[in-house]
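Researcher: Let's continue the batch. This sequence belongs to Nitrate reductase, and it's 494 residues. Same format as the previous ones, please.
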Amino acid sequence: MQQIRSQVTERDGLFELEAGTDVLDSPRYNHDMAPTKVHERTWNKWHITALWIGMSICVPTYTLGGVLTAYFGLSVGEALLAILFANLIVLIPLTLNAFAGTKYGIPFPVLLRSSFGILGSNVPCLIRALVACGWFGIQTMFGGLAIHLFLGSIFDGWKSLGGTGEVIGFMAFWALNLWVVLRGAESIKWLETLSAPLLVAVGIGLLVWAMPNVSMTELLAIPPKRPEGASVVSYFAAGLTAMVGFWATLSLNIPDFSRYAKSQKDQILGQIFGLPLTMFLFAALGVVMTAASVKLVGVTVSDPVSLIGHIQSPVWVAVAMALIIIATLSTNTAANIVSPTNDFQNIAPKVINRTKAVMLTGVVGLLLMGHELLKKLGWIVSEVSLETVYSNWLLGYSSLLGPIAGIMVVDYFLIKKQQLDLAGLYRDDVYPAWNWFGFIAFGAPVVLTLLSLGSDAFSWFYSYGWFTGSALGGVIYYGLCSMRTSPSVAKSSV
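Model: Same format as before. Here are the structure tokens for Nitrate reductase:
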């Protein structure tokens, strides 16, 4: 006989929900959104390290150095330092926001119900989902190009398809991504664990190929593309903010993965081992490879897929493209599909299950790349490049996501003091439908950011958007909650 009231038990600091009919019948619950059982939390520090290696080694990471030098006026050395510092900084919200996922086994949208309300959580969820779908489309474009070049290295006739072949590759890679995620979290863990050593080997191989054709001394001596005599501080800070924005999305939805971690120690060490150094080294590799590309293939090429496509040996092209397909697949499935899948389910868990949410993510990502696909088919002509799109996204979206990160950390650690009503997060009778304190704390920094765009005196507020937004959002939220006379949510029911 099914128990009526849910029970929460605790084992070694990890909480587990035995759902009763009060939760099972709730419109806020489905099986995919349910807290993981303790025995399902099987990811150790090496699995999480592999997850971050798999997500970090990708085409956009490779091009980050070029983005910072071309769009943010930094020298090569300054760009690499900005990337390293940014990933050390982003470790802070990543590890902090991961705590609740590991302790309670809950995904990102369910955690947001504490700070934004049971229904209000859908607003930050959909903001997060949109940028993930955009990145999914961008990464799928790179993966589709790799498939096109792979097939072109095997079949001579395929090369003549040109842009049409790239679109076919896009659709094939699109379907492959969705298939992996539909197989579940263990499939993603297996993919990341398998791909991590392969991706490290690819990086080493590319470096060995490039180093004889580039002088590091000359590379580091290239002057930055900013006005002569201009202070490096503002340019560096803007670049730093953009690089923080690269993983600002994951710093929010890291509970989607930490809910599978064996312990807090595993999630913390796995992220420290896997993220900062991998990002720095692969971005540095991109700078070196781009500089060496002139001698290697005769032209400057800023992405590895196109660079390897210039190699004359069909065998090496085929091998390299297969590895790049694995690299892009490991990044895309974990970083860009898992989150919107959970976010879309949060809208109506009883109506939208994981399969429907995965397909919805795929459709939105496809639509966002429609402009680029039509260009490749030759149906429209446009000067807008993918590189411009995602370099602008990094800064703009980090300004929106910063306040959410600040609010989440303050709510969990300072307001709720790491105590959540686990069953209450899946019902309508414990947390409010809309937590207006969360929306005020989120809206104020966003409004100030938009206003700063039209003011030279306050342009710094936008340029440093993630830092200003997260700090201000957290402070406002703490102030509003501290003024509330009624006590906050009760501690976890056991």
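Researcher: Any comment?
Model: Residues 486-494 have pLDDT under 50 and may be disordered.
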